[in-house]
Amino acid sequence: MANKNTFFLLLTILILNVLKGYAMASNDSSNELEEMKAVPFDYYQLVLQWQPATCSNLTCLKPWSSRFSINGLWAGSYSGSIGRCSGSEFLQQNISSIRREQDEDWPSLVVIGSNPAVWGEEWDLHGTCFETPTFQISDYFRLALYLFWKSDVLQALEKYGMEPADGRRYLAPDFESVLNVSFGKPALRCSRNVKYNLQYQLAEVGLCFDKCLRHINCPSQYSAANGCPRNQFIL
Ligand SMILES: *[C@@H]1O[C@H](CO)[C@@H](O)[C@H](O)[C@H]1NC(C)=O
Ligand SMILES: *[C@@H]1O[C@H](CO)[C@@H](O)[C@H](O)[C@H]1NC(C)=O
Ligand SMILES: *[C@@H]1O[C@H](CO)[C@@H](O)[C@H](O)[C@H]1NC(C)=O
Ligand SMILES: *[C@@H]1O[C@H](CO)[C@@H](O)[C@H](O)[C@H]1NC(C)=O
User: Fold this and answer.
1) N or C: which end of the chain has fewer CB within 10 A?
2) Which of 15-19, 70-74, 135-139, 189-193 has the lowest average pLDDT?
3) Closest Cα to atom 13, ligand 2: which residue?
């Protein structure tokens, strides 16, 4: 954990760079940064994976537990969806300094062996949307880790007596409002789980952040009913 503190210091520097980058870019549309940004985006969506939903349904090939881990960090637009972005090629060396944190908090549970292939896909699909000369591959992954660590969803649930337990049912509005208080309106996604007779289980939680990295309500294009039943679901 001492390690994480050092890490936070480094992240603070990263975050300041992120904010400085936007401040500069927003002055002048002919600014080099603005021009080189692949796609204009309005907000970040951190997508968390609920490990039990994946692993009690599919065969996971890595250790898992009742916790959230990172699925991805996506670029969001208020006006609709952001198309496919493109950018630099992902190399393992780009994230060698955060490899341990990546393995721990961003595992690819259903894939044998190393995770980088999955991180590379995430970079290609989503990370490239954020790429600028000052926001490179390692910045993308460090930003996702930073947002993940500052958003402890399980702790927020426990604070309101909503500890996860195998097969426990949650009322969708209660679940949403507990997260809403701590993080702004979440984007919840459920899927049917074979373990529970194909009943709906929470699979993903999306949390949204503005460009100053403050929690914001996820736009209504992600309504609570986005794959989750309105009444109740399993955690
Ligand atoms: C952008 O504007 C701010 C305030 O107007 C100024 O301090 C800053 O130097 C400007 N940056 C660039 C790159 O022009
Ligand atoms: C669980 O399996 C069902 C049926 O194969 C599938 O539709 C669903 O998407 C899976 N859920 C997850 C979280 O993988
Ligand atoms: C990725 O790593 C390579 C090798 O260290 C480096 O040349 C390249 O600039 C890095 N790319 C990005 C976008 O971070
Ligand atoms: C979420 O919180 C905001 C205030 O922070 C409130 O206006 C909104 O109604 C809440 N939404 C839900 C679904 O609880």
Assistant:
1) N
2) 15-19
3) 54
